[in-house]
Amino acid sequence: MAKLPKAFEKLIEELQKLPGVGPKTAYRLAFFILKMEKEEAQSLSNSIIDLKDNVRYCQICFNLSDEEICQICSDENRNHKQICIVEQPQDAISIERSGEYRGTYHILGGAISPQEGVGPDQLRIRELLERVEKVVPEEVIIATNPNVKGEMTAAYLLRLLKGKVPRITQLATGVPFGGDLDFADEITIAKALQSRRTLDTK
Ligand SMILES: [Zn+2]
User: Fold this and answer.
1) What DSSP line would sit under 43-82, residue for residue?
2) 69 alpha carbon to ligand 1 midpoint, in Å?
3) What is the 72 CA–ligand 1 centroid distance (Å)?
4) Are residues 182 and 95 in the same domain?
5) Does the predicted TM-score (pTM) go above 0.85?
6) Structural domain count, the chain
7) Which H or E run contains 90?
8) In angstroms, what is the span from residue 5 Cα to ligand 1's centroid?
9) How far is the CA of 96 from the centre of ligand 1 (A)?
10) What pLDDT is recorded for position 182?
11) Model pLDDT for residues 175-189, shown as the tens digit of each residue
12) Which residues constitute the domain of residue 114?
């Protein structure tokens, strides 16, 4: 088979670094991009760089933000005494979409996974503790994903926060086990929030 032009090969190679993109999809996407108008391709390429240059992490909750402090953390109408702990920014976005929550978030940046070498030190748990000591929240909602890693993280957080927060709750199991919050629909998340259970904090 004749070799593809170098630039084409390079794009396929780069696209394959994206999650869920295998050789076939990369090939199809590269052809699609080739057929795009130059301005469209330029806009796609610019938005990737723009994302890297301009999106940062909120200094308080580590959610994605345009500014040093995100919109949620700087909103006086939100309940700053309520902190919902999630694994990734996508999870906070899903909870926001449910419209059921008026507190703040804390984004861990992942879940504990000894197999993958991710321990508490690799997550933003130290920052969480510092924040809890400073803010003294009325409630912390543990909303890690309903899977093995998420549950392990939830158990760790509960041990850590016991005695430091008067009320520790966990999202109800409306979200199917093994699933991701990220993929749960708004109604499921709203229900899981409404019927969140209080964990034993003694
Ligand atoms: Zn924030």
Assistant:
1) HHHHHHHHHHHH-EE-TTT--EESSSS-TTTT-TTSEEEE
2) 5
3) 6
4) yes
5) no
6) 2
7) helix 89-98
8) 45
9) 13
10) 66
11) 566 566 666 778 888
12) 78-198
